[in-house]
Each structure stands twice: as C-alpha cells, then as structure tokens.
Amino acid sequence: MIISRVEGAIGTITLNHQAKRNALSETLVDEVVAALGEFTRREVRCAVLRAAPGVKVWSAGHDVSELPEGGYDPLGWRDPLRHLIRELENFPAPVIAMIEGSVWGGACETVLACDLIVATPEATFAATPARHSVPYNVSGLLTFLNAAHIHIAKEMLFTAQPIPASRLERMGIINHVVAAPENAPLSISVMKEQLRILAAAHTMSPQDFERIQGLRRVVYSSHDYSEGISAFKEKRKPKFRGQ
Ligand code: YXS
Fold first, then answer.
1. Which candidate among 77, 115, 116, 118 keeps its CA 20 to 30 Å from the CA of 168?
2. Do the Cβ atoms of 175 and 116 come closer than 8 Å?
3. Whole-number Å distance between alpha carbons of 203 and 205
4. Is the beta carbon of 94 within 6 A of some atom in ligand 1?
5. Sequential DSSP letters for the chain
6. Is 106 an active-site residue?
7. Ligand 1 center to residue 128 CA distance, Å?
8. What CATH number did the domain enclosing 227 receive?
9. Distance 221 CA to ligand 1 centre (A)
C-alpha cells in the first residue's frame, strides 16, 4: 500500500493505494509505521511523506469502512489514525509532508502533524468530522489548534470544505521549504521533541476531560453518527437530525 525508500540521509514514504484513494486503513498505517521504524534504525535525517506524483487525491482520510458502528469511540487511543499521528510526532527527525491533490479528514490532521508542509498550489485540505457527524478527539483537535489560528481551525472543522493550499500558505500553515543548509541532526531531533512536549502542554482538570469525553460519547452514540457512516457506505447524502 506504500513505497518506502532510503536514499542517503532521506527516507521517503509514498502512499500507493489509489484504489481506495490512499484511505488511512489499519493496513496502510501499519506499513507507514513500519517504514518509519526502518528509517529510525537507519538514522535518516529527514522523512518525506508523499503520494504518487500527479495524484488527484493525496489521501481520502480515515478508512470509513473501519469506523466502528454507533456507541463506540471512533477515534480511541488504538485507532490507526491516532497511532499514525503519534508515530509522526515521535519520529526523531523532521517529517516533510509533500502534498499533491486533495487531502481529506484524518489525512488533513496527518499533514498538519508533520513538521513541514510543502504543497502544490492546486492542493486542497478538507477537515471532515462535520461531514460524517464524527466527534473528533481531544488530541486531534489540538493538532488543528497548534497548526492554525482557532478561527481557521473552526472554519475547517465546521464547514468541512476543501481549503486551497494558497490560502493556507498565506496564513503560514503551509511552509515554503528551500534547500536547507547542512543542519545538526541531534539539535533538530531534540528541538522536535521539545516542540512536541510544549505543543501538548495544555493543562486540563480531570473533570474537564471527563466532561469532554461525555460530550463526545453523546455524538458517537447519536443517530447522526450512524447516519453519517451509513450514508457514506450507501454513497448517498446523509440526513442529519441533530440528535
Ligand atoms: O466503491 P469502491 O470500492 O471503488 O471504493 C471507492 C470509495 O468507497 C473508496 N474510498 C474510501 N474508502 C474508505 N474510506 C475513505 N475515506 C474512502 N474514500 C474513498 O475509494 C474508492 C474510490 O472512491 P471514489 O469513487 O469516491 O473516488 P473519487 O475520485 O470519485 O473521489 C475521491 C474523493 C476523496 C473525493 C471521494 O472518495 C471522497 O469524498 N471520499 C471521502 C472523503 C472523506 O470524507 N474522508 C473522511 C473520512 S472520515 C475521517 O477521516 C475522520 C474520521 S473525520 O471525518 O472525523 O475527519
């Protein structure tokens, strides 16, 4: 489902499951995680996460067919998307997301969790929980909040509309990466881990966390969550009731 290659100090992972538009299935995520493990063992200095050149869809996001039916948390700790995000954040060297085509849902968060983002001007980014009535999880929302101003994060999450790369670039969410001079890998690796710890350093009382989990449970146990999943599988527009 992927092509993984190490050339010199750079490891490249190419998402290569076009039949399902590179949906982040458990199998595909396991292959990406295994490739990152190999890159760590070979001490690559930078990883590139891309899709095949010229794709229309970089990734269609979480594999909807693997989302649980109603009543279960769709983005729990062991979910493949959550696993992928943690592996990218913990990888000991910079990960550059190289984007062509459209990016959807959990793949949007995956790109934002990378250290640098390089995108073609035609690339688009759509956060889609509201499209499927999915109650996004706490650390996932933090990925958006750490990458974008809260007004932009809300626009992405509430509208589920594709946003063009050029607009995200103007807001500094997408980098322009130029050939970097030879930098010290140890310093970069430690700064990356420092930034991961700082970005996650949000205090929250156990009571607030429990309140959030209760609110999310209301959504993933709702008619609308089940309707969102069924509508996708039946290839029809969902009819949400707000309950
Ligand atoms: O019918 P077959 O078997 O050929 O399969 C079709 C699609 O069902 C499949 N596919 C997916 N399968 C599982 N999960 C997906 N996310 C997914 N997306 C697509 O791939 C085959 C080709 O799809 P098709 O015919 O629609 O391709 P297209 O080129 O006409 O359109 C490409 C897309 C990406 C515009 C379209 O497939 C699409 O809108 N996909 C869903 C995008 C989306 O809503 N992703 C969010 C997934 S849920 C998620 O990420 C989080 C839980 S959340 O929502 O909370 O962010």
1. 77
2. yes
3. 7
4. no
5. -EEEEEETTEEEEEE--GGGTT-B-HHHHHHHHHHHHHHHHTT-SEEEEEE-TT-SEEE--B-GGGS--TTS-TT-TTSHHHHHHHHHHH-SS-EEEEE-SEEETHHHHHHHHSSEEEE-TT-EEE--HHHHT----HHHHHHHHHHS-HHHHHHHHHH---EEHHHHHHTTSS----------HHHHHHHHHHHHHHHT-----HHHHHHHHHHHHHHHTSHHHHHHHHHHHTTS-------
6. yes
7. 11
8. 3.90.226.10
9. 22
Element (H, E) at 233: helix 223-233
Active site residue 136: yes
- Which tokens sit at 56? 């229309």
Query: What domain range includes position 131?
Result: 1-243
Beta-sheet strands, E only, within 8-45: 10-15
Domain count for the chain, please give it.
1
Query: Going residue by residue through the chain (243 aa), what tens digit of pLDDT does each one get?
Result: 999 999 999 999 999 999 999 999 999 999 999 999 999 999 999 999 999 988 999 999 999 999 998 899 999 999 999 999 999 999 999 999 999 999 999 999 999 999 999 999 889 999 999 999 999 999 999 999 999 999 999 999 999 999 999 999 999 999 974 433 457 778 878 888 888 988 899 899 999 999 999 999 999 999 999 999 999 999 999 999 999
Residues in the chain: 243
